[in-house]
Specification:
The protein is of the alpha+beta class and 321 residues long. It is 43% helix and 18% strand.
Length: 321
């Protein structure tokens, strides 16, 4: 390819731009029609989401936030999340998937930055005025580097993303956004159920039993749960359980059969099927791959959203088949 010519991808550069580097994915997209994330979503890398125009609802773990232009959403690893549409269908966003090895830093400063930045888990920063202009300018420069692909663009993109992370860290206390109190007030019982699932995932959590416990119709709970979170009840329960299973596979030497029980599954067969559906691999292979990468000094995970052929969630959320 002629190095003096630009290289822009096959999609319309005005609506889409993406670049995949070692340790970093950068994706810019503009959507003009109704859109809600269709897949259950959590992963082992950090995700940075910046809304340039429009508005969204953003569900993170057990909270829902109203996100507007100038908001920077910082998703911790292993955190269940999903975006939902508002009445304003159009939105323009930038998305960055950041791995611990984005910067090979022998002194460990980059790892320390990530650890400090996500010390309290996921969060959202809301920028306005000069601060928003600064972040908007960073985004414009990154998108320009992706689209023009000039000499040194990969280094420049990493530098600009690092600037974004440092800026977020320095504004952590001043710009942090709280959960939408009106949403929590109007859906108080549903938020209690989300908290209950996060604390009782080891137990039998069928839709019927949880609805009965909270004095709700199972039909109402099913509909309201999906509307508030973007997940079906079963999807959310399985995500919480598989996330815990991944943690145990990496951090303990427990046998897979024991981890299956600890994660809330009644049979090893059921656990294996759901684990593969969510992550794209078996628990045994997942444990081996992660440990091999840890031993080699870097960590790039197989994640839930890397499978192109994942099937929609249909299995019952209870312990049994």
């Amino acid at each position: 390819m002629d190095p003096c010519k630009n290289s822009i991808g096959q999609k319309d550069p005005h609506n889409y731009a993406a670049l995949h580097l070692v340790g970093l994915d950068a994706i810019f997209a503009r959507r003009e029609k109704s859109y809600t994330m269709s897949k259950q979503h959590f992963h082992d890398y950090y995700e940075i989401y910046y809304l340039r125009e429009g508005s969204r609802f953003y569900f993170i773990k057990d909270n829902t936030y109203y996100v507007k232009a100038g908001d920077l959403v910082m998703i911790d690893r292993h955190e269940v999340h999903r975006t939902l549409e508002t009445m304003e269908q159009y939105h323009d966003r930038a998305l960055f998937n950041i791995y611990p090895d984005m910067v090979l830093d022998a002194q460990g400063h980059f790892g320390e930055l990530l650890t400090h930045l996500f010390r309290n888990g996921s969060f959202i920063l809301s920028f306005s005025g000069a601060d928003k202009e600064y972040v908007d300018n960073l985004m414009e420069r990154i998108q320009n580097e992706i689209q023009r692909r000039r000499s040194g663009h990969e280094i420049m993109i990493r530098v600009l993303v690092l600037q974004l992370l440092v800026f977020a860290d320095r504004n952590y206390c001043k710009r942090r956004k709280e959960t939408d109190n009106s949403l929590r007030k109007n859906n108080r019982r549903l938020f209690l159920i989300l908290n209950y699932i996060n604390n009782h995932y080891k137990e039998d959590l069928s839709l019927e039993k949880v609805a009965e416990q909270f004095f709700l119709s199972k039909y109402y709970l099913s509909h309201a749960f999906r509307e508030l979170t973007g997940f079906t009840f079963v999807e959310y329960v399985n995500n919480v359980r598989i996330k815990e299973a991944q943690k145990l596979l990496v951090e303990t030497t427990l046998p897979v059969s024991e981890i299956s029980k600890e994660a809330g599954y009644g049979t090893l067969t059921h656990f294996g099927r759901i684990f593969k559906r969510v992550t794209g691999t078996s628990p045994q292979v997942y444990r081996r791959e992660v440990r091999e990468r840890q031993q080699n000094g870097y960590l790039i995970y197989r994640t839930a959203d890397m499978k192109n052929d994942r099937k929609p969630e249909t299995d019952a959320g209870s312990k049994g088949e």
